[in-house]
Amino acid sequence: MAEATTKVKTTAKPVSQASTFEAKVETPTFGIPKFEFPKFEVPKIEVPAAFRELAERSVTQARDGYEKMKAVAEDATDVLEDTYATASKGATDYTLKTIEIARANTNAAFDFATQLVAVKSLSEAVELTSAHTRKQFDAFIEQSKELAALAQRVATETTEPIKSGVSKVFKIAA
């Protein structure tokens, strides 16, 4: 009893209406409804040997097909990597050759301009201009041949891995 009186003294606070309402209302708890799945019994059926053999052959064929396709995909990836590397190197070589040609042509143009400034007569200027034009035309023809030969070499080197890779892939897939 002494305990009850001490509880009354400690809990003797004025109670508001909101707190008494909250104490009376219980919040519902939500949960996942529990369903039981029906139990089906699978009848025990004897699978004929022919069906088992067919299934085993199908699995073996699928496995073999997968292995072939995997090998083909790996080879195709290698071919593409080789082709890309060759094309990249060829493009770099072609670009370097183009830069070299541009440098040579620019130097020739500056040399021509320097010589043209030193000319004393109109006939000298015409002679110098025609000589420079012939020289540049010959250089242009030679440079075009070099670029064409380089482009042909790059194209041949780039397509060679593709040709050999495709024939190899068809042999594997067959």
Structure explained in plain terms:
With 174 residues, this protein is mainly alpha-helical. It has one domain (51-173). Helix content is 79%, strand content 0%. The protein is built from four helices and no strands. The protein has helices spanning 2-10, 17-24, 49-117, 122-173. Helix 3 (49-117) packs antiparallel against helix 4 (122-173). The longest helix is centred in the middle third of the chain and has 69 residues, at 49-117. It is elongated, with a radius of gyration of 45 Å.
Q: Output mean pLDDT.
A: 81
> What coarse outline follows from CA principal-axis ratios?
elongated
Helix content estimate: over 70%
Beta-strand residue percentage: under 5%
Structural class: mainly alpha
Task: Give the low-pLDDT segments.
Answer: 1-10
Write the layout of secondary structure elements.
Layout: H1 2-10, H2 17-24, H3 49-117, H4 122-173
Helix pairs in contact: 3-4
Short recap of the structure:
79% of the residues lie in helices and 0% in strands. With 174 residues, the chain is mainly α.
